[in-house]
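Lines hold sequence, tokenised fold; shown next:
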Amino acid sequence: MQPRARILRGFTPGDPLAPRTSRTYAGGMSTNVAELFVQTLKAAGVQRIWGIPGDSLNAFTDALRRDGGIRWMHTRHEEAAAFAAGAEAELTGELAVAAGSCGPGNLHFINGLFDANRSRVPVLAIASHIPLAEIGSGYFQETHPQDLFQECSVYCELVSDASQLPWVLEAAMRAAISLRGVAVVVVPGDVFFREAPGRRPSAPIRAAASHVVPGEQDLRAAASILNDAKKVTILAGAGVAGAHAEVLALAERLQAPIVHALRGKPHIEHDNPFDVGMTGLLGFASGYRAMERCDALLMLGTDFPYRQFFPEKARIVQVDIRGSQLGRRTPIDAGLVGDVKSTASALLPLIDDGRNDKHLKDSVKHYRKTRRELDELAGNDGKKPIHPQYAARLIDELAAQDAVFTADVGTPTIWAARYLRMTRERMLLGSFVHGSMANALPQALGAAAAASGRQVVALSGDGGLAMLMGDLLSITQNDLPVKIVVFNNSSLNFVELEMKAAGILDFGTGLHNPNFADVATSVGITGIRVEDPADLEDALQRAFAVPGAALVDVVVARDELSIPPAITAAQAKGFTLWALRTVMSGRGDELLDLADVNIVRRIFR
């Protein structure tokens, strides 16, 4: 019978591959592959690694322990580790790392890695593997990570020989940073123990700034379209990060209102006299209107996916650092490959001055009206259950001016998009491209670790929090002062809204929840439950004031409609069918419970 060591690690005591005393070669780096791994990550400025230890990862975690220069951030689920790493990478712009053991261990990464890759943030995933000699045999916990992670990465490679390691690891790190995505390095557990090749170290691998400017001919073609137009609107996405002043200067010259996509919100909304809000499924009327009425649309750094919200008759100029994105969502008349900051600066001198400001003034006026209407819905009418808009408004008012917010997919993202006001220092993170449940809590872990000293507030849905609720323990284990506000409506609320839009009765969406405040208290987090709107402000103030983590369980209204700025005929028909079926099924009281009567009237008029 084989010793347990061979079953789990692929070697027996005394084997040449067994752990041995570390030696060094010229240049001072350890001979052990795991130690070389750690040294390379340290040189790149990596400060922490997210994950769960496991047998096939033992050599690596032991190298971390002995080195002591990188903090191990233990999570209770590898999916949370990947989300946390993605949030850290998005917040810092630097490489973040997650590590998981073979088979089911690193397989749990996949949802969080999909999110990081689609959000275009630099993450390195270390996926340990079964013993090299056992690959292909159907061995215990065997998967094929180099195949599994192909779709959610920009680089994925198996290290089957120690001599590959420096080259593969450095290529992976450079790919993650330069292509802004996930790179996966798969290492069999026994290979970690092997002697590293005697190669001198490369320069530290860090993010480097570069500027890409379109050619003169392309710039003039775009300027010609914009100069010929009477009403220009700008649509700004995540690509405007770091280009706030340049985009505003271009908007002033064009006298163009600025509509933002959700991922553009933290980068362009603040200190912006041209802001007219958001469009899309989570947006509101003013953003939709400013795009619908323009005769030229300037898309800056956005991959806005909803084709139904693009103007039908306007000419379109698109700017993106990735040429492959141009014209992907809507036909365009000019495409510029360049970063937004450099391109806006190069385009500005080519734009004619003295443009009529009627379109801008009309769009801003409509935005102010829409903004007032939204704010009216966020008041405290003293009724139970609490309106979620009111909770979001209070969070905005009471949170720090440099707070980092995370928002669960579903209605928490809607309220965050509509009621959290960005400042120059605030940041909003979420699963805004991949659209995964349960992202807010683990992303808050990563944000709190990376942004030490800044307030981190997670807007969690009850369904999202419950899905990865075990990682409440990660908050206390890693001593992270995360503030969690749970929008507790005892339902998968956004799914119910989608069912109503489809004209069917909601089914299977109800949640039997615990008292989340009691759960938080039981694991060492300050827990507060709020059912009366009169108590909410004091509860949030208390939670934000405690030095450590806190969770506020807010019981909010379930039947709270939030719908897109433009209602299609199919959606109107769907809501009508839902209303009829609701009455006929004896659930007519749900219609009376809807707080936003104006929205109901708008649907059925």
User: Anything to note?
Assistant: The chain has 25 helices and 18 strands.
